[in-house]
Structure formats: C-alpha cells, structure tokens
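Propose amino acids for all 110 sites.
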C-alpha cells in the first residue's frame, strides 16, 4: 500500500509496499522499508537500523542506508545506491555509477 503522511514507531519495523510521501521514522532500533519511491525521509536517529527504498527523493538517516536511486542525502555508517544525485556522508559510501564508486567519509554527485 502507499503511505501518505508518515509511519512512526518506538522500535520495530515500518513497511510500505509501494510509495511513501512523507516519512518513515523509528525512534529506537528498527528497519524502514519502502518497496518503491520515498518522497520525504526514512530516519532512525540513533543509527541502530536499516533504511531501504527503491528510490528516494529526500533523506535517509541510519546505520545502513540502501536505495537504487538517491536524489538527496544519505547519512550513516554504510550508504549504498546505484545512482546518486546528492550527497552521502558515512564511513563507507558507495554510489555504483559514480566515476569513483566507493568513498570514505563523503561521496557526492550532481
């Protein structure tokens, strides 16, 4: 199903089968999953979790962030995407289609 607005948890999982227009937010340890596009954010502020979206326009903030297409920002220990139009900040940043696909600390492409 699509999510318009937000999904919020103390800890656990937020799951949207299709699009998210808004936010998936988990206060504690957990996972945010969007089967398709996120227009907004996926956030686990204490960095104890995983964010996954097929495509994101906005921000992902967690220990591990994964998306096929990123237009925006990823912040976490490990950030991964195929296509990056924005910024990744973390220990390991992977943007497969960049000229330098793996970077430490910062990776960017516009």
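Proposal:
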């Amino acid at each position: 199903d699509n999510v318009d607005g937000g999904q919020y948890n103390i800890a656990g999982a937020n799951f949207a089968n299709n699009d998210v227009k808004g936010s998936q937010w988990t206060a504690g340890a957990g996972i945010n999953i969007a089967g398709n596009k996120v227009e907004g954010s996926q956030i686990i502020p204490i960095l104890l979790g995983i964010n996954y979206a097929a495509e994101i326009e906005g921000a992902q903030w967690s220990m591990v962030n994964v998306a096929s297409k990123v237009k925006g920002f990823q912040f976490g220990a490990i950030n991964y995407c195929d296509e990056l139009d924005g910024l990744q900040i973390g220990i390991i940043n992977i943007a497969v289609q960049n000229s330098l696909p793996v970077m430490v600390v910062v990776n960017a492409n516009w």
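The first strand starts at residue 3 and ends at 9. The two ends are 32 Å apart (CA to CA).
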